[in-house]
Amino acid sequence: FWHPEEELAALPGVSETVVGYCGGSTADPTYKSIGDHTEALRVTFDSRVVSAESMLERFFEMHDPMPRAFTGTQYRSAIFYHNDAQAETAAAVAGRQASSQAKHTSIEPAGPFYRAEEYHQRFLAK
């Protein structure tokens, strides 16, 4: 069972992980009313310790996305970026991945991030 929050939170340089919802237009999404959002993980890290490129490479090592036809928007594979440098890095790392990973992972602007309910935070640790 793969749970990215726990694995990424344990990496050197990662200071915080927050489970939430991103990439949609529905106001105030929740797990039961997610609308068109995607379940997401916001990772805060010190780029002096670990690079964005390394974080994205780790994401692709851990993650095997399902084709979008099976997932809709809630469980789709996506990388949400906040600036042009992040978009370029995500595209470069995705371009080096196996075709199925890159093919089924969207790279798009982050937009608003909504923190998920508390029971979703550090789920396995609880």
Automatic annotation (TrEMBL):
It is an enzyme of class 1 (oxidoreductase). InterPro entries: Met_Sox_Rdtase_MsrA_dom, Met_Sox_Rdtase_MsrA_sf. Its EC number is 1.8.4.11. Residues 1-126 form the Peptide methionine sulphoxide reductase MsrA domain. It comes from Emiliania huxleyi. Belongs to the MsrA Met sulfoxide reductase family. Keywords: Oxidoreductase. Gene3D superfamilies: Peptide methionine sulphoxide reductase MsrA. It comes from the Eukaryota. Pfam families: PMSR. This is peptide-methionine (S)-S-oxide reductase.
